[in-house]
Amino acid sequence: MDIVKEIKQDGKVIKIFRDVEVDSPQDDDAFGKMIYTSTKYLLGGERLTSEELDSIENNVDNICLPVYAYVHGSVQLNTTGFNCKWDSGQCGLVYTTIEDALFEFSELEVTPPITRED
Hints:
Elements: E1 3-9, E2 12-17, E3 33-36, E4 46-47, H1 50-57, E5 62-71, E6 75-78, E7 88-97, H2 98-104
C-alpha cells in the first residue's frame, strides 16, 4: 500500500494509508436502514419505488431522516443537505422503527415517555 501522508512529531511517526478494501457500513448490522428511489445510481441500502418510500416515511411506527445526495464526479451523501441546487437533492431516507430504537437504547431514560396516538 502507498502512504498517503506521513506525519512526524515528538519522535513519533503517523502513517496514513488509503484503504483499498473498504466495507460498506450497511454490512455491519447497521442500526438504520437506508432506502432510495434513484435508478441512475447505486447508493447503498435498498432501491424502492416512490410509493414504497412514501409508505415507510408516513408509517407512524418509523423514525426517519432524509438522505441527500450530491453528485458531481462522485457521490456524497448526508442527512442535512448540500448547498448546490443543480447537483444535489433528496434521494431517499434512513429509518428505523420506534421499537428497534427503544430496544437499541433501552438503557436510556426517555422523558417524557414516548406515546403513540392511534
